[in-house]
Amino acid sequence: MTGDADLTRNAFLGGRFHLWQPRRGYRAGVDPLLLAASVPARAGQSVLELGCGAGAASLALAARVPGLELTGVELQHRYAGLARRNAAENGVELAVTEADLGALPPDLRQLRFDHVIANPPYFVAGAHSPARDGGRRVALGGETPLGDWIAVAARRLAPRGLLHMIQRAERLPEMLAGCAGRLGSVEILPLCARQGDAPGLVILRARKDGRGQFRMHAAVAMHDAGAGLPQGKDYTARIAAVLRDGAPIGWPG
User: Fold this and answer.
1) Does a structural domain hold residue 127?
2) Number of structural domains found in the chain
3) pLDDT tens-digit profile of 34-62?
């Protein structure tokens, strides 16, 4: 790992945890916090994060729900090391495995989890402007199809376990196709910039052995329309509670 001069240490959830992350590489934003806020985990349950990066989503979930058994999988050596460091410095037990999703080690393939969470790259490799930093390039543009992410998640879920995944709205058809025959009781929570805007992101929830009907919920607005506040200060009360207080996002019903 490079020296700390190449890193920044940033506070999340109003200082509930801090994250070392590359100064110029891929940096966690609000998306892993929204993902963590969507998971109805309870103390004592097990959670696997696929593509954990520096650990933002897992640590956000741990800040809200103490007593979880957390495991992360990360392809990139530098980010896997950062995830271990961040977990240790925040007093969170997070077992991080450095591996490709398609080649998980045998010991991990023997485990089943109550929850699997994932924030896969938003673009197919080559379908976006290339980033100069290699870590950011891998994080933004993935070689692994979304269907493969979902297939791996389905195999690692315990019976009745839940997958939560955040992704760009235009890739929803790929996500639904990946769930077909593997996961059921699919629900979609769209996220839009402001009320009335088309959703830019979606959070998918799907259950192992689920038999419930598909549900598309009303979009959640991130920002108050016409608030006249600087960017980052105009979050709706619901989203501000997630990002600053570590509150759950709250699924309808």
Assistant:
1) yes
2) 1
3) 999 999 999 999 999 999 999 999 999 99
